[in-house]
Structure formats: structure tokens, C-alpha cells
Specification:
3-stranded antiparallel β-sheet; two-stranded antiparallel sheet; 71% helix
Length: 504
């Protein structure tokens, strides 16, 4: 029996991040608390930078690696690059020390003496850095998986660290722990659906590889009941990860309860990874069953856009507003999957890339509005923010306009591309609903802008804190990207279009 051939160069970007995550675990185990923060920060940023450099070196790859369990092709390169960029920005927010977002001691009971002692002593949760790196590595494997088993393992590598990180908020500890518990339990259910669906597909196709599944569909004509049942169950697992209705209920609670840097990371990176996996499954593996799954995804896309936009109007918490906004954006992104065309593939990748910057930027701004107890996410207390801090309010306005898809922002480019692709493919219904949902969404974004600029500030202790350079850099990068890609998007569009291909 010959040893399997492992293409370490092609897997380099993933292996670098995984190695750094393991080094981070060793740092936590053997290094004094005094030096952990600087070592964890240095290791994390160096790993992401080296991983991105290696990704650039293999950008022209077009092959299946690791015994055909993974595909390193143009689509994978774009998605992995997006994950690394957004992971880097998320790490910048997590590294902020000026105002601690993470609890000093996660194991302490909220409000207990142990928690108070930990706060007074200045303890910090540096474990969050290796956890973030593990999540990034899982997110990099997820859209490259060419096998259902690899897909499941990468899903868990991505999800398990996030379950833990969601419960580490310093303020409102019980709400944070509730968010972590909900995320874990519902995530376990979605993983069970995913595995059950994989078993059905394997039972019919006799293979867990996407190539084998694709071949089986051609041979059977796509009419096998086990295959359709398996695909339905697999779809449930994926739709949970992308926050699509009716599997979206966890999103508002988890977004609100998690530490805001974790929410920012989760909102951008998980969305890219999950839709990346969905692209590979629906475009490559089960494209031959399009007439079976397209009507279902059309209904889910319409429901997701409607629920996300309508319910967001009634929210009084800025993080919950952004959570329902993320749900609506999942509905928009599903239209790119439904298109099942080269234009749809290009548009989905462009949308994911433009969406991530605006999303991380909005949550970075949320970390700056605080009182003596920590972050203030109650929208009523954001009144008059434009008079308190015109620069912060103006930047937040830019991000909101980007999420709304207003012209001259990156969001407009993404929405125009994805709706155009859906229209060309003949799926007029999702385009009509998408345009209407975008108009409704603009209402609650503008409502926040009006609240910031046309209301008088209330003296209730709310203020805008001065962030450290890491948070300033995050906001600046996101703002520049949102604006530049709205004004001059052609280089990004051309680069993504040239890379949007599948191996084999």
C-alpha cells in the first residue's frame, strides 16, 4: 500500500494558519500571562499574513489535492483570500485593549466574587486568538472541500471555536452565555441534518466525493428518492450556517449576545465560508438536479429577504438590526446560487467580498459607543451621535449606505451584479422581491442615520471612546474599501471574473 500524496504547497495557506493555532495553544499552556498577549497577537497576524502570501503564490492553481478531498481552484483562491482578509480585520478588533470586550475569566459565574477578582487583577482572555485561528482554518477548508466528509470536518473546525467565543462577552455575561448555548445546540442540530443528508447521498451515489455524486446524478437521471432526500437534509445544514429563513432564529440572539469583535468576525467570515461551500455543492456537485432544488431555494430566498427586512424595522438594538440585515443579505446572496450561471458565480463572489468590509466596519463602530458599563447598543441612546462625534457618525453612515446598496458604495456594485445575474437566468421573481426588500431595508438604515443627525443628544453617560490604532486601522480599511469599490470597482470585478472557475 502506497502512502497518499499530499500536496503541501497547495495546502500551505491552510497549514500555516493551523500551525499557528497549535502554537497559540502551547503559548497558553506554557508561557507566563505577562507575555501571552503580545505573543498571541504576533503569532496570529504573522500567520494570516504568511498564509495570504502563500495564497498569492498559488493563485493560478487548478487541481484536486489531498487525495482528491479538496479542490484548489480559482473559486477556492477567491474565497480563501476573502476569509484571510476578513479574518485579519476581525483579529484587529479582537486585539483591541483600550476597552476590553472579553470577560476576564470565562469559567467564573457572572456577578461572582471570582469574576470581580479577575476583573480587578486585569486578566485577559488571550485564548481567543488560537480559537480565532482555528475558525479561520476551518473557514478556509470549507469552500475548498470536494468531499462530504471533508466538508463536515471543516464545518466543525469552523463552528466549535465560534460556539466558545460567543460566550466570552465581558458585559451582559448571562446574555452572552445564553447566546453561546443557543448557537451550540442549534448548530449541533444542523450538523446532524448535514450528516444525515450525507448518509442518504452516499447510500445512493456510493461515494462521498462531489465528482462521484455528480456522476451518479448523470447516470440515474437525478430521479432517485434517496438522493433528493439527502440533498434536502444537506441543504438544511447549509442554510443554518448562512442564516437563511426558516433557519435564522439563532442569528439575532447570537449577534446581540456575543462580544462585538466576535460578531464582526462571525458575520463576515462565516458568511463567506458557508456560501463558498454552497457554491461548490450547487454549482458543481448537484447542478444536474437544478430543477429539483431551484424552486425550493427561490422560496427560501424570498422568505429570507422578506423576514430579514420587515422584522429589522421593529428592532431597538443596533446589533439586532444588523443581525436581521445579515439575514436579508443571505436572501440576496441566494439569488446568485439560484442563477446557476457564470454570471451568477461571479456576482456571488463579488457580493461576498464587498459585503464583508461594510459588515466588519459597522460592528467596529458599535464597539466605540459606550458608557461606564461598556458598549451601548440601544438605538435610542445613539440619538445625536452626529453631534457628539461627526467623524464616527459619518463613517457609520457610509457603512449603512453600503449595506443598503446605495450608488457609489461597494454594496451597490454587489447588488447590481447579483440581481443582474438572476435576471439573465430568468428568475424574475427573486429580482422583484430583492429590489422591494432593498427599498424596505433602506428605510431602517436611513432611520438610524436620521436618529444620529436629527435628534438631540441625551446626557445619559453615552459617549464615543477613543480607540487604539488597531481599531482605527480596521475602520479605515473598511471605509476605504467600501468607498473605493463603489467608485472604481473594475479591478476587483476583473480579478474575480478571471479566477471564477472550478477545478476539473
Amino acid at each position: 500500500m502506497n502512502a497518499p500524496n499530499i500536496e503541501y504547497g497547495m495546502l500551505g495557506p491552510i497549514l500555516i494558519v493551523l500551525a499557528a493555532a497549535l502554537i497559540g495553544v502551547l503559548i497558553e499552556a506554557f508561557v507566563s500571562r505577562r507575555y501571552r498577549y503580545i505573543l498571541q497577537v504576533g503569532t496570529s497576524f504573522a500567520a494570516v499574513a504568511l498564509s495570504f502570501l502563500q495564497l498569492v503564490l498559488i493563485r493560478n492553481s487548478n487541481s484536486k489535492v489531498a487525495v482528491n478531498s479538496m479542490s484548489i481552484d480559482g473559486v477556492a483562491i477567491v474565497l480563501q483570500g476573502s476569509v484571510l482578509i476578513f479574518g485579519f480585520l476581525g483579529l484587529l478588533l479582537i486585539a483591541e485593549r483600550g476597552f476590553q470586550s472579553f470577560t476576564a475569566q470565562a469559567a467564573a459565574i457572572p456577578g461572582s466574587n471570582e469574576e470581580q477578582k479577575a476583573l480587578v487583577s486585569g486578566l485577559q482572555q488571550t485564548e481567543v486568538f488560537p480559537l480565532t485561528l482555528f475558525a479561520i482554518s476551518g473557514a478556509m477548508i470549507f469552500p475548498t472541500a470536494n468531499d462530504l466528509l471533508t466538508l463536515f470536518v471543516s464545518l466543525e473546525v469552523l463552528s466549535l471555536p465560534l460556539y466558545l467565543m460567543a460566550g466570552l462577552s465581558q458585559r451582559r455575561r448571562l446574555l452572552s452565555q445564553e447566546a453561546a448555548l443557543k448557537y451550540f445546540l442549534l448548530g449541533a442540530f444542523s450538523s446532524a441534518f448535514f450528516l444525515f443528508g450525507s448518509a442518504f447521498i452516499y447510500g445512493q451515489a456510493g461515494s462521498t466525493t462531489f465528482d462521484g455524486i455528480r456522476k451518479s446524478i448523470v447516470e440515474s437521471g437525478g430521479s432517485d428518492e434517496f438522493l433528493l432526500i439527502g440533498l434536502a437534509l444537506l441543504t438544511v445544514g447549509l442554510l443554518f450556517k448562512v442564516s437563511a429563513a426558516p433557519f435564522h432564529a439563532w442569528t439575532p440572539d447570537v449577534y446581540q449576545g456575543s462580544p462585538t469583535p466576535v460578531t464582526a468576525f462571525m458575520a463576515a467570515v462565516t458568511k463567506v465560508a458557508a456560501f463558498g461551500a454552497a457554491i461548490r455543492i450547487y454549482y458543481f456537485a448537484v447542478g444536474g438536479l437544478v430543477w429539483s432544488w431551484r424552486p425550493i431555494l427561490i422560496a427560501i430566498s424570498i422568505a429570507t429577504m422578506a423576514i430579514g427586512t420587515v422584522i429589522a424595522i421593529a428592532q431597538k438594538d443596533v446589533k439586532r438590526v444588523l443581525a436581521y440585515s445579515a439575514i436579508a443579505h443571505s436572501g440576496f446572496l441566494l439569488t446568485g446560487i439560484i442563477a446557476l450561471s457564470k454570471d451568477g458565480l461571479n456576482a456571488t463572489l463579488i457580493y461576498l467580498f464587498t459585503y464583508g468590509f461594510a459588515t466588519i466596519g459597522t460592528f467596529a463602530i458599535v464597539t466605540l459607543v459606550r458608557d461606564s458599563g461598556g458598549e451601548v447598543s440601544d438605538l435610542n441612546r445613539w440619538a445625536g451621535l452626529g453631534k457628539r462625534s461627526p467623524l464616527v457618525a459619518g463613517t457609520f453612515t457610509l457603512f449603512l449606505l453600503g449595506l443598503a446598496g446605495i450608488p457609489l458604495t461597494s454594496g451597490f456594485v454587489g447588488k447590481f451584479a447579483i440581481f443582474s445575474a438572476a435576471y439573465k437566468s430568468g428568475n424574475i421573481s427573486v429580482v422583484v422581491v430583492g429590489v422591494l426588500a432593498s427599498a424596505i431595508a433602506a428605510f431602517f438604515y436611513v432611520r438610524i442615520i436620521v436618529l444620529m443627525y436629527f435628534s438631540d443628544p441625551v446626557e445619559d453617560g453615552t459617549s464615543v471612546v477613543i480607540p487604539s490604532p488597531v481599531t482605527v486601522a480596521t475602520i479605515a480599511i473598511c471605509a476605504v474599501a467600501t468607498l473605493v469599490m463603489g467608485i472604481y470597482p473594475q479591478p476587483i470585478i476583473s480579478a474575480i471574473n478571471s479566477l471564477a472557475f472550478f477545478a476539473g
